[in-house]
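Section: Multi-chain targets

For targets with more than one molecule, the full set of components is provided together so that the structure can be written out for the assembly as a whole rather than chain by chain. Components appear in the order listed by the source. The example entry contains two components.
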Amino acid sequence: AQTVTQSQPEMSVQEAETVTLSCTYDTSESDYYLFWYKQPPSRQMILVIRQEAYKQQNATENRFSVNFQKAAKSFSLKISDSQLGDAAMYFCAYRRLTGTASKLTFGTGTRLQVTL
Amino acid sequence: NAGVTQTPKFQVLKTGQSMTLQCAQDMNHNSMYWYRQDPGMGLRLIYYSASEGTTDKGEVPNGYNVSRLNKREFSLRLESAAPSQTSVYFCASRAYEQFFGPGTRLTVL
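Its structure, encoded as tokens over all components, is:
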């Protein structure tokens, strides 16, 4: 079974600075998807960024980028120029490539605080 | 286009009571999912439905039943609620990039 580990329960960053959230996963498969979801206090789950394992290039979405290290099974999220609105829980998630309804396996989350 | 909607947003039950959580999506997605979120444990899959008329167990199905009423609707039923089912419940749709509903906070006393 796949597992996803987020070893940082809480992180803090000053506004305008850069922070990196860590995620490792365990799988025996060679092709899969990885995601980062954001959950602000409103509770809504919002997709931040996704990475296909077969793509060597790291995904980027505006201020959000990932460092995908397939051999190390590591998938970290970098937030640049942090803003107060980035304060939230961040969840890393894994999904198999095959299967019409493959489920997401989530990590336990990292709570990010953004300070002035 | 409302996306994924869930009702109710909050609910308090007594032990042994039953209730159904409703979920609907208007994006014509085949796959739908029910998750629960507990502190320190992330989201865990309860049940999912790959298409209308099919349902399958996820990681934590005990104490729950589901119905895929049609392509739009996927309900979650607690037949006899227990305090261990106190949680936040999320419905989601689409297999690839899952879209989530706003969640239901359920408290079982």
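Chain A has a mean pLDDT of 93.
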